[in-house]
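Design request, tokens follow.
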């Protein structure tokens, strides 16, 4: 039976990545969950999952930044790493962020607050990683890489690295308010 205790990290950030990945895989095995969705910017967390964390029987879907999000026509995850992850049978999802994307352009241009940003800020009340988990699960569902309504474990973080893992039932972005967060595996307290 899965330990019902949530693991809290004293600080957010990349120093929690290995523990977060291990906790997520352990929970997936104990709960019989077959899909983990993992956020990554430059691929460091994805490479760690591929090379250091045993995850047999679990499909890993890596969700990356969209091209041009940080600078025009560029993506921070090197093409060689993308190829390596595909050789390891990881799914790759590169798409606009569900909880910012085009709406961020409107708020930056017109200096207002829009509904999707309110959703994002509300989720951040539970931590940046929790917002990321909901967002990447919707992105993966939009791409058909995970099924809506079926439990997955989503792994996100604060700035760099992984520090949050949750069990949730994702929905596609047009139904994001139907997403159900079932349990928190780990998260930072700051």
């Amino acid at each position: 039976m899965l330990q019902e205790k949530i693991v809290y990290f004293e600080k957010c950030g990349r120093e929690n990545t290995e523990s977060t990945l291990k906790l997520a895989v352990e929970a997936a095995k104990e709960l019989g969950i077959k899909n983990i969705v993992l956020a990554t910017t430059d691929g460091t967390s994805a490479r760690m999952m591929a090379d250091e964390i045993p995850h047999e029987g679990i499909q890993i879907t890596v969700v990356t930044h969209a091209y041009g999000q940080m600078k025009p026509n560029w993506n921070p995850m090197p093409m060689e790493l993308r190829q390596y992850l595909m050789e390891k049978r990881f799914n790759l999802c590169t798409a606009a962020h569900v909880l910012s994307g085009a709406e961020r352009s409107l708020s930056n241009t017109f200096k207002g607050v829009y509904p999707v940003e309110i959703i994002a800020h509300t989720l951040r009340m539970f931590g940046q990683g929790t917002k990321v988990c909901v967002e990447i699960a919707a992105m993966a569902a939009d791409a058909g890489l995970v099924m809506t309504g079926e439990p997955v474990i989503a792994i996100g973080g604060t700035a760099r690295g992984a520090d949050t893992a949750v069990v949730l039932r994702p929905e596609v972005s047009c139904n994001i308010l139907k997403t159900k967060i079932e349990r928190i595996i780990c998260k930072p307290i700051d």
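Comment from the thread starter after seeing the answer: thanks! The mean pLDDT is 93.
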